[in-house]
Amino acid sequence: MRIDHLIGGKSVKGSDYFETVNPATQEVLAEVASGGEAEVNAAVAAAKEAFPKWAGMPAPERAKLIRKLGDLIAKNVPEIAQTETNDCGQVIAQTGKQLVPRAADNFYYFAEMCTRVDGHTYPTPTHLNYTLFHPVGVCALISPWNVPFMTATWKVAPCLAFGNTAVLKMSELSPLTAARLGELALEAGIPPGVLNLVHGYGKEAGEPLVAHPDVRAISFTGSTATGNRIVKSAGLKKFSMELGGKSPFVIFEDADLDRALDAAVFMIFSNNGERCTAGSRILVQQSIYADFAAKFAERARRITVGDPLDEKTIVGPMISQAHLAKVRSYIELGPKEGATLLCGGLEAPSNLPNRVKKGNYVTPTVFADVDNRMKIAQDEIFGPVACLIPFRDEAHAIELANDIQYGLSSYVWTENIGKAHRVAAAVEAGMCFVNSQNVRDLRQPFGGTKASGTGREGGTWSYEVFCEPKNVAVSL
Ligand code: NAD
């Protein structure tokens, strides 16, 4: 199978192609067009040409087309979920039941929202000020390989709904479902040129896209290193940067331990541990630390690692052999830094089905006695590797939670309501979940602080990147 660019509603062949590989089997799934400056220029030109008509379409009409795209995704969930699972190794229980259906919801949500964009008025005795929210223009949407379809739609839906046009660049490691999104957008009646797709590598396709003078806004999700690079080359564009994380999952001695255990296991091992909001630093109060560690490791040992197409599988393969090597290097490093390996380690998971024997698998791994300054505690491993770190009291928990370059998500578990609010306020993160795993509401501001990024998306927060506010002052 060949996957080509989508530019101005037409399939455009690549001058070169790269392979996308199933990380569970190493089977080549498709040859994908590898774009560069020429394809980026053509895609941006197509988006620029389509912009005035799309932006000028009454919002209810745009909403109808956006909703139709949601319907087409909803109708094709099993097919899209299977493609996504094959392309990136995310287990089918997640892609089929959660992530692809949520992608359809992204379109439903923003279809409704774009019909309700209103402004503000600031009357004075001499002037009436009011706000208009205009679309920005051509937007560059860049997505990582983890949760690729959900992330792409999370960007495309508000971008298009608010009247912008887009050039979407997926990760070279997981481009397949976005190609399907492009087809469905045309089928929904979204005019050619409104959504364009350029496939390819970051250096060849991503760099010219973010530097293009006709691109007015960038919505980027990916690593902190790439985010930093993009900010430097973007110049005066609007942007939102959703970057890496190493989120603290803080459990006090008065927490509901069973629920905290379930949530802690879910937040580090689901999505193969390849999750930006993973609770990868599990801070546990000293008095319950030994008990918690034993129970946590016991649950980790029971996790089903296997074929991502099997509904019962919890942990599938890592996205690539390079990423597998990176995750394994941290598993090797842990004991050298002084951490205690409670379960997992370098040995491949036992009992892998034949079909996936060559997959990029890591056994769910738990390190105890982790010091927050160790590299395994400070670096984003982005795999099924948990670090258990003891703390003394509330002040110590806050100190450890914040002693990190990242600030994406955070989790606090306590039955003491005052303590919950105090820690939630003190933790340096864009999001804090109290007695809960990460539960996304499309209205909430999603994003991080410190090295986890800048800008927020979701609900009216998406105006920040996808709308240009204008104040009109009328002399009375
Ligand atoms: P990455 O930074 O390597 O790549 C992300 C995207 O950027 C890819 O499409 C890539 O091709 C492109 N790219 C690379 N170099 C570029 C350049 N110079 N200019 C323009 N584009 C370029 O990240 P990844 O490895 O694909 O994804 C994993 C990272 O994403 C992790 O750090 C994870 O935490 C983060 N992430 C963050 C969120 C969030 O919402 N904060 C969500 C998911 C993933």
Question: What is the element layout, followed by pairings?
Answer:
Layout: E1 2-3, E2 5-7, E3 10-12, E4 17-21, E5 28-33, H1 37-56, H2 59-75, H3 77-88, H4 92-114, E6 121-123, E7 127-135, E8 138-142, H5 148-161, E9 165-169, H6 176-187, E10 195-197, H7 202-211, E11 215-221, H8 224-234, E12 238-242, E13 248-251, H9 257-269, E14 281-285, H10 286-301, H11 321-337, E15 340-345, E16 363-368, H12 375-378, E17 385-391, H13 394-402, E18 406-407, E19 411-413, H14 417-426, E20 433-434, E21 449-450, E22 453-454, H15 463-466, E23 467-475
Parallel strand pairs: 1-5, 8-9, 8-11, 9-10, 11-12, 13-14, 13-19, 14-17, 16-17, 19-20
Antiparallel strand pairs: 2-3, 4-5, 6-7, 7-23, 12-22, 15-16, 18-21
This protein binds nicotinamide-adenine-dinucleotide.
Number of helices: 15
Strand content: 15-25%
Task: Kindly report how far apart the N and C termini lie.
Answer: 64 Å
How much is the average pLDDT? 97
- What profile does the largest beta sheet have? 7 strands, mixed
Instruction: Output the CATH class name of the largest domain.
Output: Alpha Beta
What is the molecular shape? globular
Coarse structural class: alpha/beta
The CATH topology assignment of the largest domain is Aldehyde Dehydrogenase, Chain A, domain 1
Q: Could you tell me the number of beta strands?
A: 23
Helix content: 40-55%
Count of folded domains: 2
Instruction: Spell out the CATH superfamily of the largest domain.
Output: Aldehyde Dehydrogenase, Chain A, domain 1
What CATH architecture label of the largest domain applies?
A: 3-Layer(aba) Sandwich
The ligands bound in this entry are: nicotinamide-adenine-dinucleotide
Low-confidence stretches: none
> How are the strands of the largest sheet arranged?
15-16-17-14-13-19-20
Protein name: 5-carboxymethyl-2-hydroxymuconate semialdehyde dehydrogenase
GO molecular function, one term: 5-carboxymethyl-2-hydroxymuconic-semialdehyde dehydrogenase activity
Keywords: NAD, Oxidoreductase
Pfam families: Aldedh
